[in-house]
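Reviewers of the previous submission asked for a worked example of the structure-prediction workflow described in the proposal, so we include one complete record here. The input consisted solely of the amino acid sequence. No template or homolog information was supplied to the procedure at any stage.
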Amino acid sequence: MTGYIRAMSYKHFLGRSDLSLIAGQAMIERGLEPEFSRAVLQELRAIAHAGQDTDPRVVDMTAWLWCSIDNDDSRDLDQLTVAQKQADGQTKIWVAVADVDVLVPKGSALDAHAKHNTTSVYTSTRIFPMLPDRLCTDLTSLNPHQERLAVVVEMVINSEAEVTHSQLYRAKVHNKAKLAYDAISDWIEGDEALPDAAQAVHGMAEQLLLQDAVAQSLRVRRHAHGSLEFETLQPHAVFEGERVVAIRQQVQNRARQLIEEFMIAANTCTAQFLAQHGHASLRRVVRSPERWQRIVALAATYDEHLPAEPDSAALEVFLAKRHKADPLRFPDLSLIIVKLMGSGEYVVERANSEAIGHFGLSVRDYTHSTAPNRRYPDLVTQRMIKSVLMQAPAPYSSAELESLALHCTQQEDAARKVERRMRKSESALMLAGHIGQVFEAVVTGKTNSGIWVRVFSPPVEGMLTSYTSDHEVGELLRVKLIHTNVEQGFIDFAAWG
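From that input alone, the workflow returned the following structure tokens.
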């Protein structure tokens, strides 16, 4: 900790390397460990190769047309997908999840670090991985042209986009093509050619189109049953050397939707699998909103009526209307609704107990299981699944799961605060040379401490520290940049004109 503070104290914040220092300090301040211990590194050096298992129950699926679809720069590949049309008109979807547990056993030093942080933390200048790079980007990553162990979720989906059957098992898999969201989405929508990595694999084009068709049918059904569609800002900085040259917003697209739908379905089937086998599980829940009446009142300001009791389907209809009517300000409405709904959390649910459910997704059974390289609850769930499949005792007691649920919720919140903090510093660094410039903006919030505004281009938020009249949330106005502080992540504006 001292090293970070000392390094920061004697430098003027000018570039990417400075942001990396700030990120390390932010991790420490939030109770997260930015570095791996000597014990972790020693344990890592003893791992010679990727996980192996000669158990005859491990299914050989290496010949299948598996592919990964992720961000352009992703190196920790947690899942692969493949689809197959059935003779009865149904479709089978398989989701393969990297077997991380095989190299990161419970109680190891590697496990202890992962358990402490509970998640990878992503900033534009530095990634703080939950597991060392040699594992999460290599030996436990489902990298192309490598044989890897996985836990597979097999799902049968009918013409009505219902999952009619599912089963889980262990398998060996082989990623035939590492693909990226934007490139695949552009191809699906007819804007660009199929990426070379997919073209090189016979049958991959047809495979991707089938996956997309099934994913879109799942998506339509999910929203018809009340799953909520939000659009919140997720900007990230783009660097050229030490300089921030742009702040870009992540755009939802068909390929992202494909993976999202398959992961939601797999997580639901996983939760049901553990319940069916009489096991407690670490569930991901979003409770029915206690502040529903405030959501009702907010809808009324748009002349829309919501029922008196929480109703996700009615809320989704309202959100869809507002997105169509005012796409410019929809991200800000989304953010308000998300805050009123309350954050997601981890809880322990036992077999045959009443499930809390996930209000935002409108599903009863839901866990996190598809990203064990970067999210600790998924690794816990994987160990629970494997204990069932291998007919072994449950690896966690109820008391352990209860403690983990609380800890993972707290650490996830800490990690998200680090990421938000760094987005503010990145934006402040980019805008540092634009003092006095006037921007188009919208009022996004009002607190006792002041008024918050979002600039449209670049997509950054700051405080309105100088104004002559009261401004309402949603109001469009022009603002002048008057101050930035990279270290603190402050961006201050004054109302203009």
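Confidence is low (pLDDT under 50) at residues 1-11. We consider this example representative of the routine output the project will generate in years two and three.
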